[in-house]
Write a structure and sequence with these properties.
Elements (H helix, E strand, L loop, with lengths): L6 H10 L2 H12 L5 E16 L6 E16 L2 E8 L3 H16 L4 H27 L10
Antiparallel strand pairs: 1-2, 2-3
Helix pairs in contact: 1-3, 1-4, 2-3, 3-4
C-alpha cells in the first residue's frame, strides 16, 4: 500500500500515540487475522542520543526504558519500539505497522490515525511556539 507517510514516520507516530486508541485499532485489526509473534514485547534500556544545538555534535544523554515487539501478519513484518514498559501498546503498534505493510483492509484506518497524530503534534508545537513568541527579546544595534 502506498501512502504519503513513509514507514519510518509511521513507526515513529505509532510509538508516540496514546495506548487507548492504538490498542483499540489493533483489536479491530485482529478480528480478521491472527498475527505470528516474532518477538514478544520485551522491556529493556537503550542509549538516548541527542544533538547539541550550537556545535551540532552528538552525544548520549543517558539510558531510557523502552519496549519492543515484532509480529508477522499475512507474510509481512511489523515492528515497534515505544518508550516505557507498556507491552500491550507496543504489541498493538507492531500489529498496526504490519497491517499497513500487508495492505490489509484496516491499513487506511492506521494511516488515518498516524495522520491525526502528526497533525495533533504539529498543532501542539505551533501553540508552544506562539506562547514563546511573546517572550522574544529584540535588540537594537547602536552606531
Amino acid at each position: 500500500m502506498t501512502t504519503d507517510i513513509d514507514r519510518t514516520r509511521r513507526v515513529e507516530l505509532l510509538a508516540g500515540l496514546d495506548a487507548e486508541p492504538l490498542v483499540a485499532l489493533a483489536d479491530r485489526c485482529l478480528g480478521r487475522v491472527d498475527p505470528v509473534i516474532v518477538q514478544e514485547p520485551e522491556v529493556g534500556m537503550v542509549m538516548l542520543p541527542v544533538r547539541e544545538p550550537v556545535a551540532h555534535e552528538r552525544f548520549y544523554l543517558g539510558e531510557v526504558l523502552v519496549t519492543r515487539a515484532e509480529v508477522e501478519l499475512d507474510g509481512h513484518r511489523g515492528w515497534s519500539m515505544r518508550l516505557g514498559d507498556d507491552r500491550a501498546a507496543t504489541l498493538a503498534a507492531a500489529i498496526c505497522d504490519a497491517v499497513v505493510e500487508s495492505g490489509g483492509p484496516e491499513a487506511a484506518d492506521v494511516v488515518e490515525l498516524c495522520r491525526w497524530s502528526a497533525e495533533a503534534a504539529a498543532a501542539a508545537e505551533r501553540a508552544e511556539w506562539a506562547e514563546l513568541a511573546s517572550t522574544e527579546v529584540t535588540f537594537e544595534e547602536l552606531d
